């Protein structure tokens, strides 16, 4: 592709206004933005897929203290994990046109970025979109602080999302005997059992049997491991049901992040600290930055599991940039199963 053939603009999703409460499609707009030709040390990438991730809710809320990502103000372009094809790479760098790369400049059809920020996808995974799977966090949590052991009973709170749909499968592959999940949707509960091997899935939310009662019936002997992506009432009940020596890993806080009553940065839960001490329960907030090498280890094992058919990567595909404006509100509303990716 010659310089005259390169696109001179990119179509991107921008935050039109900061919502009071949860974002709606009208809070986002499509914008055609001029695109310069890449200079040496830069690459131009045609995006193929990008991830819709719930952390955007917190970034839009502006409460980013302690986070490695910046907040989003009105007029800013959204960003996030993406996979695409290099269309131009001036100079003699390692990247060449046609290479598949992973980067953080999603939410646009073309991305101009420093070559160092575009990571070659390699051949560890059988399909490029698999690089958008949110499995590194649950894998790291279940192999490090939570340490799943053969015979364990594991609870995954928030089992139908991008993390939870992989977490239950990972727990089983690591030796868990019983894997219990939670969701708000009976349809999703059925899919989790039928398609992803959950032994039982509990329904949380208004109109349901008290969650603590459901959990006591599902795990009468208690829980050995909890992987929590939700917080709130579900975390409280899980800690009460934990056995002596149980390991609890927190990898999300969706109860607060998806609430219209917060800025997406708080997820309070009532915790009996006396009970944790008496039963010797560990409670850890998992951060991948604290565990170097997890990402590479996960990618290697994930690729092998995908090729052998031992694991599935469930995701919902949204078609095109014009549909992307509604993607985050739909994710927050719980309309989709598994990860949510936009395909261009």
From TrEMBL:
Species per Swiss-Prot/TrEMBL record: Streptomyces wedmorensis
Secretion signal span: none
Record-linked InterPro entries: ADH-like_C, ADH_N_2, ER, GroES-like_sf, NAD(P)-bd_dom_sf, Zn-ADH-like_protein
One matching Pfam family: ADH_zinc_N
Upper taxonomic lineage: Bacteria, Bacillati, Actinomycetota, Actinomycetes, Kitasatosporales
Domain Enoyl reductase (ER): 21-342
Protein name per the record: MDR family NADP-dependent oxidoreductase
Top-rank lineage group of the source organism: Bacteria
Gene3D superfamilies: Medium-chain alcohol dehydrogenases, catalytic domain, NAD(P)-binding Rossmann-like Domain
């Amino acid at each position: 592709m010659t310089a005259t053939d390169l696109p001179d603009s990119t179509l991107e999703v921008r935050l039109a206004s900061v919502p009071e409460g949860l974002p709606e499609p009208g809070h986002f707009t499509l914008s055609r933005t001029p695109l310069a030709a890449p200079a040496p040390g830069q690459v131009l990438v045609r995006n193929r897929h990008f991830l819709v991730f719930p952390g955007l809710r917190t970034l839009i809320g502006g409460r980013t203290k302690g986070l490695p990502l910046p907040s989003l103000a009105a007029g800013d372009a959204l960003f996030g994990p993406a996979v695409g094809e290099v269309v131009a790479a001036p100079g003699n760098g390692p990247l060449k046109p046609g290479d598949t790369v992973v980067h953080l400049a999603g939410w646009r059809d073309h991305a101009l970025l420093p070559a160092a920020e575009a990571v070659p996808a390699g051949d560890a995974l059988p399909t490029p979109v698999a690089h958008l799977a949110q499995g590194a966090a649950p894998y790291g949590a279940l192999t490090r602080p939570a340490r799943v052991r053969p015979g364990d009973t594991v609870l995954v709170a928030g089992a139908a999302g991008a993390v939870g749909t992989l977490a239950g499968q990972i727990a089983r592959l690591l030796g868990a005997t019983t894997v219990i999940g939670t969701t708000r949707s009976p349809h999703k509960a059925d899919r989790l059992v039928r398609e992803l091997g959950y032994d039982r899935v509990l329904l949380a939310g208004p109109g349901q049997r008290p969650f603590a009662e459901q959990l006591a019936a599902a795990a009468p002997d208690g829980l050995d491991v909890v992987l929590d992506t939700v917080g709130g009432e579900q975390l409280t009940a899980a800690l009460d049901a934990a056995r002596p020596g149980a390991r609890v890993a927190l990898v999300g806080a969706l109860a607060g992040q998806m609430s219209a009553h917060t800025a997406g940065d708080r997820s309070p839960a009532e915790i009996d600290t006396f009970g944790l001490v008496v039963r010797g329960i560990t409670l850890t907030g998992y951060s991948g930055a604290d565990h170097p090498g997890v990402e590479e280890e996960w990618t290697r094992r994930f690729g092998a599991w995908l090729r052998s058919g031992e694991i599935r990567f469930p995701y919902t595909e949204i078609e095109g940039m014009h549909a992307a404006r509604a993607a985050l509100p739909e994710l927050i509303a719980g309309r989709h199963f598994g990860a949510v990716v936009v395909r261009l």
